[in-house]
Amino acid sequence: MGSDETSEQHETGPRAASHKMQSLDLISQLRCPSCANRLQQNVDRIECSVCKVSYPIIDGIPRFISDQHLASFGRQWNKYEVAHDDEDRATFQAKTGISLAELSGLRVLDAGCGGGRYSKVCGEAGAAVIGADHSDAVSKARQLCSRLPSVAFVQADLKRLPLERESFDFVFSIGVMHHDADTRAVFDAVAKLVKPGGRYSVWLYRCNQWWQEWMNNALRRRSTKMPPEKLERWCEWGAWYGGLPIISKTLNKVVNFSAHPNRENRVCDTFDWYAPQYQYHHTVAELSDWFTEVGFDQLRVLPPEKTGRFYRWVYERNLLIGSGVNVTGVKRAT
Ligand SMILES: C[S@@+](CC[C@H](N)C(=O)[O-])C[C@H]1O[C@@H](n2cnc3c(N)ncnc32)[C@H](O)[C@@H]1O
Ligand SMILES: [Zn+2]
């Protein structure tokens, strides 16, 4: 890192370690979320000299916000080991519509990076990546990507990112925006970071049949109020059922639980479904309109990753709980 690392090099001990920045020259890329001025590092804080505000750097990560309503994500991503390289590479390509070969040399934003599995995929493919998340999941993300000098993280709200507008070649967001109180506000704010001519790929939960939505809302009204330890115990049961193929292919059209082949992923995915305060479901038409309204064209509706005739049949009838609507587009050059 440039000047910030120089100012730190005489410090030793745990305090120094807690604000030692990530390898990517992150500070020079940060902008004040209020006035867009460049930010400076002052020992263990990031400051805006115009607004006279500062933000802490904790464990090497600038923290512009704390967990709030998204704390369950900090818990789940730090607790469960769910990254699997081959699977994550395949899922990333399916849900963004971009191949790994295209990533080399690009400046990429992982909007809502969680535990960092897709930031890792991009960093390994040669992109310079910033991962942003509202929750302390960024701690796990940083750990997961610790060997990748071109990947760095910030803890921030996607609606007020400390980053320059129109500065990313490629921005993606997988399973994130529907967890905000206002999905559209997040979509619009993140879209502003894409360069003219750059690509934007978004995956959101799909709106299911009315009776599935009704059942899900009833369950989530309860589950979101449970203490996390109690909910995790329920998710352990869900993970057990999810491991039984017949049950997982039938009952999960009524009640969502994960059927991932790995047990730890099943617990994590099920918790991921039932814990967050907000979970909105959207349609392809809605998401496509959002892209058009904020100046994107060359839209492509991406198909689901899984194949198979039965899968496609239930998917196309919006019967698959937890499946997505997935669109990618290119920002019009102005
Ligand atoms: C289901 S996780 C997905 C994480 C990652 N994209 C993945 O697929 O592994 C959703 C993440 O979005 C983050 N998130 C939701 N709303 C956000 C917001 N307004 N600003 C920043 N992060 C947000 C949550 O903290 C959480 O880590
Ligand atoms: Zn400022």
- Total number of helical segments? 13
Describe the oligomeric state of these chains in a short phrase.
Answer: single chain
Strand order of the largest sheet: 7-6-5-8-9-11-10
Please provide the ordered H/E string of secondary-structure elements.
Answer: HHEEEEHHEHEHEEHEHHHHHEHE
Tell me the overall shape: globular
- The low-confidence parts are 1-17
- For the record, what is the CATH homologous superfamily label of the largest domain? Vaccinia Virus protein VP39
Strand content: 15-25%
Beta-strand segment tally: 11
Give the fraction of residues assigned to helices: 25-40%
CATH class annotation of the largest domain: Alpha Beta
CATH topology of the largest domain: Rossmann fold
Average of per-residue pLDDT values: 91
Nutshell version of this structure?
The chain has 2 domains: 14-206 and 281-331, Vaccinia Virus protein VP39 (Rossmann fold), CATH 3.40.50.150; 225-274, no CATH class. 37% of the residues lie in helices and 19% in strands.
Report on the architecture of this protein.
It is a single chain. The chain is of the alpha/beta class. It has two domains: 14-206 and 281-331, Vaccinia Virus protein VP39 (Rossmann fold), CATH 3.40.50.150; 225-274, no CATH class. It has helices spanning 3-8, 13-19, 71-79, 85-96, 117-124, 137-144, 183-191, 210-223, 228-242, 245-250, 263-274, 284-293, 309-316; strands at 40-42, 45-48, 53-58, 61-62, 107-111, 128-133, 151-155, 168-174, 194-205, 296-301, 324-331. The strands form two sheets. Strands 7-6-5-8-9-11-10 form a seven-stranded mixed beta sheet, sandwiched between helices. Strands 1-2-3-4 form a four-stranded antiparallel beta sheet. α3 runs parallel beside α6 (137-144) and α9 crosses α11 (263-274). The longest helix has 15 residues, at 228-242. The two termini are 34 Å apart. The structure holds S-adenosylmethionine (SAM) and zinc ion.
